[in-house]
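Incident log, support desk, overnight shift.

02:14 A customer reports that sequence design results differ from what the structure should imply. Their input is reproduced verbatim below. On-call engineer (initials T.W.) acknowledged and began investigating.
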């Protein structure tokens, strides 16, 4: 059956024209600054102009820009600070559009398959929007419907990444960002496939089946397609509503977040790569007490080889035991090449920051006195300064969402002001760890839900 929307040239051309109109002047302005000499003030002005241009585009390019703003040292600091202010919500589709889209996915009698379907979206984001609905028996649903021509828009917008990355290459050669571009492209393309996202959600339901602190939505397969994902609706409240809750509640939610991230990674080699606070809500138990978190979005999921996971454990134990050889082995396993002692020392600055809370066998916050927005920024800047003198270094692509998710997770802990023994939580997850065991679990779990062993791209 032909796919009328699959990466259409006409749609790409339209998107190119729109992006070019917004970005052309900014690109020329930035190029001029590079020729005449950079300054912090010029960088800030150019970053603000770029943010304004992207803000008028919505869609995939803005999502990519937001991703770059959360990846340490992917783009210059002045640009990252401005791009963090972008909001990815796109104007919602009208109900006339929605009816047409739903008919294209489920057939002309689509509405008869639901008990109810709300005309106004409950949420709108960069690639699609969510509508509340019910099954004929009253079961509440969330219907995630992709905007038209998103595949064409993504391909057009990914080509615009060249501007952002050429900026960094010209401004600073300490970090080679070529692999970051490849990784972002692969993950954004995966997010277009709601069939894959359904398998991701089913994978998480399997991995977290025995964890009462975390709930995963069920997938309604007869009402799902490549561009429509229908799930059970998980009732919950925004996680930031609990910033002022009692310490026991905040710590329970912090523990749930830790388990939701580290258990799938340490046992199956899987991480949830989008730490946006909107992807988590808090459910209440039968007594009305906050019981844990709903994990809502499964578009940005990263799968890792068991050997990569093994290197994460090796580096942790190498730092804990001051075993230099084990640390170097971990870096080399990940794909860092031609490492000299000076570069190893620089990488270890970042590793000690990421692992820091896991090294102390005591109850503590993630980082006392640091705001969620600043978490990791000082360490990233310090590493970057060292790399200027001792680099360059190419960051393996696997680190893009690993670092991004770790920083985002730390930000959630800071928002909650959770006080936990992260050392014991982590060591519980890696107790009895072996690469072979992860490989066996991964093969079984992926086979159950029909996922490829490793991500495409």
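02:41 Re-run completed on a clean worker. Output:
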């Amino acid at each position: 059956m032909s796919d009328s929307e699959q990466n259409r040239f006409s749609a790409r051309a339209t998107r190119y024209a729109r992006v070019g109109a917004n970005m052309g002047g900014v690109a020329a302005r930035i190029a001029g600054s590079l020729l005449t000499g950079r300054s912090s003030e010029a960088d800030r002005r150019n970053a603000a102009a770029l943010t304004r241009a992207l803000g008028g585009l919505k869609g995939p390019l803005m999502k990519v820009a937001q991703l770059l703003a959360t990846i340490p040292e992917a783009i210059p600091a002045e640009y990252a600070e401005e791009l963090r202010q972008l909001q990815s919500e796109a104007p919602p589709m009208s109900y006339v559009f929605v009816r047409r889209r739903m008919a294209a996915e489920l057939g002309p009698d689509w509405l008869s398959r639901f008990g109810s379907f709300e005309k106004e979206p409950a949420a709108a984001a960069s690639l699609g929007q969510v509508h509340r609905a019910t099954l004929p028996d009253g079961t509440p649903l969330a219907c995630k419907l992709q905007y038209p021509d998103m595949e064409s828009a993504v391909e057009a917008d990914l080509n615009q990444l060249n501007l952002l990355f050429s900026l960094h290459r010209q401004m600073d050669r300490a970090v080679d960002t070529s692999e970051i571009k490849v990784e972002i492209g692969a993950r954004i393309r995966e997010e277009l496939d709601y069939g894959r996202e359904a398998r991701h959600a089913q994978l998480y339901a399997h991995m977290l089946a025995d964890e009462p602190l975390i709930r995963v939505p069920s997938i309604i397969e007869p009402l799902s397609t490549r561009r429509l994902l229908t799930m059970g609706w998980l009732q919950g409240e925004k996680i930031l509503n609990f910033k002022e809750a009692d310490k026991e509640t905040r710590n329970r939610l912090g523990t749930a977040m830790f388990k939701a991230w580290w258990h799938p990674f340490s046992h199956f080699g899987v991480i949830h790569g989008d730490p946006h606070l909107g992807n988590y809500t808090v459910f209440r138990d039968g007594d009305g007490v906050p019981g844990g978190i709903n994990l809502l979005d499964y578009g940005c999921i990263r799968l890792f080889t068991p050997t990569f996971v093994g290197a994460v454990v090796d580096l942790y134990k190498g730092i804990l035991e001051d075993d230099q050889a084990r640390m170097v082995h971990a870096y080399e396993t990940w794909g860092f090449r031609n490492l000299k002692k000076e570069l190893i020392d620089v990488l270890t600055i970042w590793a000690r920051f990421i692992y820091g809370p896991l090294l102390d066998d005591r109850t503590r916050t993630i980082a006392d006195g640091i705001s969620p927005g600043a978490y990791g920024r000082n360490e990233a800047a310090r590493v970057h300064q060292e790399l200027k003198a001792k680099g360059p270094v190419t960051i393996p692509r696997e680190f893009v969402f690993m670092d991004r998710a770790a920083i985002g997770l730390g930000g959630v802990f800071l928002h909650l002001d959770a006080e936990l023994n992260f050392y014991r939580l982590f060591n519980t997850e890696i107790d009895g760890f072996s690469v072979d065991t992860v490989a066996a679990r991964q093969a079984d779990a992926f086979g159950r839900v029909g996922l490829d062993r490793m991500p495409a791209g």
